[in-house]
Specification:
This protein is an alpha/beta fold and 253 residues long. It is built from ten helices and seven strands.
């Protein structure tokens, strides 16, 4: 199955689009009680999941891996830092003729650069072509941006992986040559549970270093009670990871 088809199916089957389809089907059969109930259910769920205050709580429930601490680093004694690619950005008129990194990828790199400087660890970037064999490898762009914009040199580039499981497997093959099996792993907080499972199953001892948390504790703000498109975007990410964890549980279980 091609990557494009997988992305299309995800967009259709995961919320919020799946809930919109549910509501539209219900409205199409609004002359029947089950149709009205289906439409009402879809619309209520769409509204609830558009509220940051709801999605923040879902994020808190899902993102259970805490931020890395100096004490954890001292106890773990990692040998290297691995940062996973987070996608490419193709619609970039401000970079004529170029492909650049997706914003979530840049968030990972920023945190990886901070940790690399703080901990003095060599860095591996992991990410292959996103959609087609002739796409630029994420790892090449990640290394370039880390070096040029974050002043952080990259020791290794893993360019073949197309998903999280391959990030883990190919990174393990590369670092095994250098006797490295104890790493700090950087990725988004919502992605960390699945990444952690994959890298540990690949044979790494992993100290997770999540970044860019969706969940937020503390008092809610007024704007958190107003519908926001970003809430729907975060719901999609959380749902994608939940489905991925079920699949990885079957795969590795």
């Amino acid at each position: 199955m091609s990557a494009m088809l997988v992305y299309a199916l995800q967009a259709l089957l995961l919320p919020p689009v799946s809930l919109l389809v549910l509501a539209l089907v219900g409205l199409a059969y609004g002359n029947r009680k089950w149709g009205r109930n289906m439409a009402l259910t879809g619309l209520i769920l769409l509204w609830l999941l558009s509220l940051p205050v709801v999605v923040n709580r879902l994020g808190l429930w899902w993102e259970r891996v805490p931020p890395v601490t100096a004490e954890a680093v001292a106890a773990s004694k990692p040998q290297a830092l691995v940062v996973i690619g987070g996608g490419l950005q193709f619609d970039t008129p401000e970079y004529p003729g170029q492909i650049t990194l997706h914003p979530r990828n840049l968030l990972r790199l920023r945190y990886a650069a901070k940790l690399a400087w703080d901990l003095g660890l060599p860095v591996l970037v992991s990410g292959g072509g996103a959609l087609a064999p002739d796409d630029v490898a994420e790892a090449d762009l990640m290394a370039e941006i880390l070096d040029r914009e974050f002043k952080t040199p990259v020791a290794w580039q893993e360019r073949e992986s197309r998903n999280t499981a391959e990030n883990a497997g190919f990174s393990r093959e590369l670092l095994r040559q250098y006797g490295i099996d104890n790493i700090v792993l950087v990725t988004q907080a919502y992605h960390m549970p699945r990444a952690l499972m994959a890298f540990r199953n690949a044979g790494f001892k992993v100290l997770p270093a999540p970044t860019a948390f969706i969940g937020r504790s503390g008092d809610s703000r007024f704007l958190d009670w107003l519908p926001s498109p970003s809430a729907w975007a975060n719901v999609f990410l959380l749902a994608h990871e939940a489905v991925g964890m079920v699949w990885y549980g079957i795969r590795y279980g």
